[in-house]
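User: Okay, second chain of the day. Same drill as before: sequence in, structure tokens out.
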Amino acid sequence: MNIIIRKATKEDCPMLLDLIHELATYEKAPHEVTVTPGHFIESGFGEKPVWWAFVAEVENQIVGFALYYIRYSTWKGQAMYLEDILITNEMRSKGIGKLLFDRLIEEAKEKKFNRIIWQVLDWNEPAINFYKKYNADIDAGWLNCSIYVSNQLNSSGI
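Assistant: Same drill. Structure tokens below.
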């Protein structure tokens, strides 16, 4: 099997969105994907891109991707934030995730990021075991927080 890891292109976006929906279903949150194709494409390939991605191809078919953006820490400086990495269900356990993750590490070194950070669901044992192979620090001491800005207009009570 010939596996090609390459930078994502604008033409890959429809398939990336399909894979994002597959990931959301796997994570038991398909209703959470609200990004529009236009916004997704503009955010990655517009005048000021905010995300970059690598895709894994087998026989001209995208079977996985890793999407990241730059995160800044006042304590540590720039880091690569891995938003999503996914290999299609039928192509898992074939070394594709390792190839994508290794390419992310190369990219982080090339761009002089000091680290790669990401989140993993506490019940996703296959992913946790994969990350442990890289000696990843898995920190249970932080809680995730978010707000929807559209809900904050005059409703914060502050």
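The CA atoms of residues 53 and 59 lie 19 Å apart.

User: Thanks, on to the next one.
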